[in-house]
Amino acid sequence: MAVTNYHTIDGKIIGETTDGVRTDYLTDALGSVTTTVDQAAVVVNSYRYKPYGDIVSESNTGSLPSFFWCGSIGYRNASRSETIYVRSRHLHMAAGIWASDDPLFPAERKFNYVGGNVTSLIDPSGFAPLCKVYEGKPFTRFKDCPPNSDGCTACNYELGETFSAICITGCGVSCIKKHEAEHRTQLKACCKGVYQCLKNSKGNETATRDCATKYVTWYDMGDDWREWQAYTIGLACAKKEYKDRNCSPAHNTQCCKEIFHVQYVAQSYVDYYKRMRPQPTNPKCPF
Question: What is the pTM of this model?
Answer without folding.
Answer: 0.61
